[in-house]
Amino acid sequence: MDTYLITGAAGYIGSMLIKYLLETSNTSKIIALVHDRRGITFHSEHVRLYEADLCETGFAEQICSEIEHIDYIFHCASITSSSEMMHHPAEVISSIVNTTQNVLELARRYEIKSMVYLSSMEVYGNIDCSDGHRVTEQEAACGQVEILSTRSSYPLGKRMAENICYSYFKEYGIPVKIARLSQTFGRGILSSDHRVFAQFAQAIKNSTDIVLHTLGNSMGNYCSIDDTLKGILTILICGKNGEAYNVVNEENTMTIRQMAELAASKVAEGRIGVRYDIPADNCYGYAKDTGLRLSGRRLASLGWKPEKKLEDMYREILEDKN
Prior knowledge:
Layout: E1 3-7, H1 12-24, E2 29-34, E3 47-51, H2 59-64, E4 72-75, H3 82-87, H4 89-110, E5 114-120, H5 153-172, E6 176-181, E7 183-185, H6 196-206, E8 210-212, E9 219-224, H7 225-238, E10 244-247, E11 253-255, H8 256-267, E12 274-276, H9 297-300, H10 310-319
Parallel strand pairs: 1-2, 1-4, 2-3, 4-5, 5-6, 6-10, 7-9, 8-12
Antiparallel strand pairs: 9-11
Helix pairs in contact: 4-5, 6-8, 8-10
């Protein structure tokens, strides 16, 4: 029986990954790590819920004292709130770096078969793809990330975490791979999610206009939750150690404004419109405009093929009864 350890099990990706593993395997054992277990339940005998502070250096000892064996690790835990990045940047960057190194130390102790670290497309920074160029995994050093900016705590933290993963692979032989996720949504979105797509979906539900707080010029790269989960598992089993893989549906690349117009005209069938309310300062903590267009070719070469379009993803949110 394979044993999977999943950090950030209360988050969107982590919780959906657990559900997916339960749906597709009746023999797997899952160790679900959360920061606070209050109100969290996984109704399966195959899931063991643990509360742990991944930033604490002693967390590995805590896990090792209770768990005999771990085969695979998915490191999903991360602060993703733009507001937190703006108001608590020191905590954001230290959390990303410290949790990643502590989880890699845990991987060393168990001599795991494979690990996937969930990174972000934000590591690419600002790259001009106005000519239609698709950015590959080798171009992460090309994009600009403003160093003296609180909002950069997230992309710079993710860059450092990726380097820590690579360093542990090179020095200790840890079989870790990196999944650079695009914006992921669809079924199972948490009610606490306030990212742009969730705001658009809520506007459709309430039959109110979509309100943009920027001009919406930033390019977005998207992938459905089901396609993303399959991509992460493909990376776990088929990916090359020390390599990074973009997880993106290239057909779902468009600007924020284009996505808002698609949601209003096609998903809401024209019942709502799109209007603008742009504040003088970036009080919402949105990342700076980027023209980034991700390439999904490397992951596709492993046999992965995304299937769901943006309209499908929005309809899943609207039809979800959870």
